[in-house]
Structure formats: structure tokens, C-alpha cells
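Fold it.
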Amino acid sequence: MKNRFLGFVYVILYLLLVISAVTRFGEKGWSVVWMSFALGVLYLLPAILERLLGIIIPPLLKYMILAFMFLCLQMGAIMSFYERFEGWDSFIHLVSGFITPALALSVINILNRNPMPLRTLAPGFIFVFMILFAAGISLLWEYIELISDTILGTNHLNDTPLGNGQVDIGLIDTMTDLLFSQLSSLLASFCLYRAIKRDRWLSISRILITRENHQAN
């Protein structure tokens, strides 16, 4: 049943991808075709990683990742929401902050040879690790935006006119993005911390990546 629903989600995503590519072709030309093709490949990334790394990504986490790709790349880049809506980039960073703590738990789980590593670590340590992991991902994202602006001539680090007639070159945008992602990741990390403290491992297992030869915690 879960596989059928996941297949239905993929059908909807690819259908919307084709529709957006066709409707935006007149404005963006062949670039939208290549972006759509690249996104179509990225949608398959969870399944590809499962096969290559021998891991199991739970359905709920897959839906979260696919939804993030849809918001960030299809609506943001292909449908030009970054240009049409001023706060879309900050919204995407806010959404990312809810996902990265779950990925932090998965990193602990799949890199540790113990099939139940989370149960052996102090909840406080896990909480700190989730926060720092999310901060590192947010910072890495800003590095990627800087590289894109420098090499490809994009403007992800939006220049912001100041009241004194000067222009801030990306600092305000960068710090705003980091603030949004950190606030949401802090909230998500606290919720997961409380779940760990209360031994709600069944709920945690729904967003936890595991090895194929390990049972979910």
C-alpha cells in the first residue's frame, strides 16, 4: 500500500514537472527543459541512494525530501518563485531546518556499527549534535550560493539596498537565511530530543534512515 502511494506521489510530481516545463518554455527556453530533466533525476535520488549505500529511507522521510525538492527547485527555480516572491528563499531555509535534525539522527545511525547507537548516547549529546549538524548544513548551503553567484552569475545572495544609499552585498540575506533555518532546526531538534527522552522510538523510526542489515530503533 505504501509503495502504491509513493508511486502515486511520483506520478503527480513528474506530471507537474512536465506541465511547468511546457508552460515556462516560452519564457525560459531550453534552460527550463534541462532544469526539469535534472530535477526529474534528483527525484530518484532517495531510491538511488538506497541501492548504492544499502540503506532504507522510511516513506515519511522520503515524502519530506521530495516535498522539499518540489518547493526548492520546481517552484523556486523552474516556476521562478525566488524572483516572484521576495521571502521564498527564507521560507525554503525555514523548511530545511525541520528536515536536517532528522538527517542528523540518521547520520549517527548509519555511520555507527552498533545497530542501535541512538539508545546508547546521552539525549543531551544528540540534541547538541542535531543543532550543530543543522548549522553546518545551513552554512554549506550559503557556500554553494556564493559559488553559484561567483561562477554562474546568479544572485542567490540577494543584494539589498540600504537606507543610506549603499548596497549590502548579500550579508543581510545570508544572515536572515541562517536565522530562519536555525530557528526551525532548533524547534525540530527539541521535539526529537523530547521524543528520545520519552523513549518514543517507534515515532523516531518513521524518519530514521537505517542500514538494510539493521533493524530500525
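The chain has two domains: 1-85, 86-217.
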